Amino acid sequence: MFDRLREDITCILERDPAARSRLEVLLCYPGLHALIWHRRAKWFWSHGMHVTGRFLSHLGRFFTGIEIHPGATIGRRVFIDHGMGVVIGEMAEIHDDCTIYQGVTLGGTSLVKGAKRHPTLEAGVIIGANASVLGGFIVGAGARVGSGAVVTRPVPAGATAVGNPARIIAAETDAAREATAARLGFSAYGVTQGDDPVALAMKGLIDNASAHEHQIALLWNAIERVLDEGVLQARDCVPTDAQTAENFDAEGLSRLVK
Description:
Elements: H1 2-15, H2 22-28, H3 30-46, H4 50-64, E1 67-68, E2 73-74, E3 79-80, E4 87-88, E5 93-94, E6 99-100, E7 105-107, E8 120-121, E9 126-127, E10 132-134, E11 138-139, E12 144-145, E13 150-151, E14 160-162, E15 167-169, H5 171-184, H6 197-229, H7 234-237, H8 250-257
Helix pairs in contact: 3-4, 5-6, 6-8
């Protein structure tokens, strides 16, 4: 028991820069207290003493503001930051090293008893503040759910889900955009967490700028081949994936920021 407690305190010190000491974490972090209450409630629940388990869960909710059903399964080094208003349903599964912020709901959309109604978070998932993950599906390892998102379908490993209803941003697409953004001096995730209209407009501009770089590189390659090989017909030197028509949607980007 004490080894598990030390592990929980260490993970909080690693992930929260506001945590200054082990004593502070032990005394002042409701997310840690909620997990301690849950482990006691889970023991009673798993041994058939459902009323006792629910009562301990209710006490934990009263003292911490975090409601965890005693039937939920929670792995190691899970960090519930701030935690007020977090609701974790009966059949939710939270694997190791996940991080959950305040106001998160891991809920269900089915009323069928015995069915897998609540989500499964694989290892390393981060759920942003006030997000709702609703349904018996899987959020893949290392995925992120943005603040305020409403997720009702599976999220692939390493992907990001933002918005209401949530849209899935593939990890490689997101990484490419952030790399371009860094070169342009703009970080879409720095302030807005990806769901603000201005950030969406900026992302559109970043994607367009990145595409232009690719097209220019293709054109230069074509020109170099012409210079090296002599005069060729136009169709012979245009790359197959070169963009030959203008499709920049300025009006669409303008509508996002109005």
